[in-house]
Request: fold
Amino acid sequence: MIAAEADRLHDFVERVLHFTTGHTVARSVGRERVDLESVCAAALGPLQERIAESGITVRASVDPEARDTCGDADALVLAVRNLVQNALDHAEGVQRVAIDVRASGRHVIISVTDDGAGVPAADRATIFEPFARGTRTRERGIAGHGLGLAIVQEVARAHGGRASYEPRSLGSVFTIIVPLRRASR
Reply:
């Protein structure tokens, strides 16, 4: 388990270094089979202790029609983990985080929803830009470099999709939309 986590951390650092030097996070998305239920589990695994200590309820739901696609599983794990960490770190007053994966036509939609305070309107235009840090984040002294959401956007683009933010009356919805690709047999 320690060796696997060390490998994951090494991969994460490599992806961040590629990103910060102007390379894409996933230069070419592989055509490997990706089980999005396993992606969610792998994204949440290292966060379990932190989630338990926080008292925040986190759940994941994967529509069977959206479970299997093709792409870069490690990059998708990184993106989903970044979205959950974003909610844990930045969503003031959050009590619940939900990961929902569903198919919509020829796309897979991965949504991470929280019931926190949401992103201030003044910060919304830049949240996916590298090194962007929100006003509340800076005011509250939360550590970070503003790369998490930029990496999410890059992973989505590398898969032929996009990432987006949608405010709600209570909380936020961050979404990754990528083409639904089936593995060739």
